[in-house]
């Protein structure tokens, strides 16, 4: 999946001659998503360290290696500059997709990378067909991230007090976007919920707390 963004690197000069205008360079920026592998796992660790003010343990990264489409790296001109990591949550008799992390390095924002990653999440849910909703946590003072997710139909459901133990503010909003399903998918989701109800659900890790797009 590759998108190309055209960027003009030259400032407008009212006194520029026609010749100078012809010399203006236009830079083409290629953005795409790629798989997480053992070979680029270290790049994800460095990215998360630079984007998020929290540290993720080795188990978190080990689990991601088997996540498949639920974890994608975002590239800008072949450089890893962002990532989205999700998991399927089977709790409360529902099958939901939880966005654990979604972030982009500051200098590469506003190129559409956040949108590209979120659209990938939507496509996963569409293929699955039996996902009730998508949800995540956002630090309450992260206005940019809140505006980004609300633009895509997410709503604030509740506030999780003291969600981030080592951050200030420590509270987070729970955001959720409900998904429409067909009658057939409703039956599949119900059957899956019954089968999985006895299984232990892993604790919700720290989540999206940074600007994304």
Automatic annotation (TrEMBL):
GO molecular function: protein N-terminal-methionine acetyltransferase activity
Biased composition regions of type Low complexity, renumbered to the chain: 1-17
Reaction equation(s) it catalyzes: N-terminal L-methionyl-L-alanyl-[protein] + acetyl-CoA = N-terminal N(alpha)-acetyl-L-methionyl-L-alanyl-[protein] + CoA + H(+); N-terminal L-methionyl-L-tyrosyl-[protein] + acetyl-CoA = N-terminal N(alpha)-acetyl-L-methionyl-L-tyrosyl-[protein] + CoA + H(+); N-terminal L-methionyl-L-lysyl-[protein] + acetyl-CoA = N-terminal N(alpha)-acetyl-L-methionyl-L-lysyl-[protein] + CoA + H(+); N-terminal L-methionyl-L-seryl-[protein] + acetyl-CoA = N-terminal N(alpha)-acetyl-L-methionyl-L-seryl-[protein] + CoA + H(+)
Keywords from the named record: Acyltransferase, Cytoplasm, Transferase
Positions of the UniProt region annotated as Disordered: 1-24
Top-level EC class as recorded in UniProt: transferase
Localisation: Cytoplasm
A single Gene Ontology CC term: NatA complex
Top-rank lineage group of the source organism: Eukaryota
EC number(s) recorded for this UniProt protein: 2.3.1.258
All residue ranges annotated as the N-acetyltransferase domain in the record: 31-180
GO biological process, alphabetically ordered: mitotic sister chromatid cohesion
SUPFAM superfamilies on file: Acyl-CoA N-acyltransferases (Nat)
Name the record gives this protein: N-terminal methionine N(alpha)-acetyltransferase NatE
Organism of derivation: Adineta ricciae
């Amino acid at each position: 999946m590759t998108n190309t963004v055209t960027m003009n690197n030259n400032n407008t000069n009212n006194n520029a001659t026609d010749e100078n205008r012809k010399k203006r360079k236009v830079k083409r920026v290629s953005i795409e998503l790629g798989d997480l592998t053992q070979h680029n796992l270290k790049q994800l660790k460095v990215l998360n360290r630079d984007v998020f003010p929290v540290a993720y343990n080795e188990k978190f990264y080990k689990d991601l290696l088997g996540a498949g489409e639920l974890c994608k790296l975002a590239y800008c001109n072949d450089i890893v500059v962002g990532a989205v990591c999700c998991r399927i949550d089977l709790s409360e008799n529902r099958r939901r997709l939880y966005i654990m992390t979604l972030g982009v390095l500051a200098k590469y924002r506003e190129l559409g990378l956040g949108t590209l990653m979120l659209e990938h999440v939507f496509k996963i849910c569409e293929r699955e067909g039996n996902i009730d909703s998508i949800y995540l946590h956002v630090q309450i003072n992260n206005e940019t991230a809140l505006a980004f997710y609300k633009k895509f139909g997410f709503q604030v459901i509740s506030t999780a007090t003291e969600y981030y133990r080592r951050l200030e503010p420590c509270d987070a909003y729970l955001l959720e976007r409900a998904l429409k399903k067909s009658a057939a998918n409703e039956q599949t989701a119900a059957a899956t919920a019954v089968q999985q109800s006895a299984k232990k659900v892993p604790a919700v890790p720290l989540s999206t707390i940074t600007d994304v797009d």
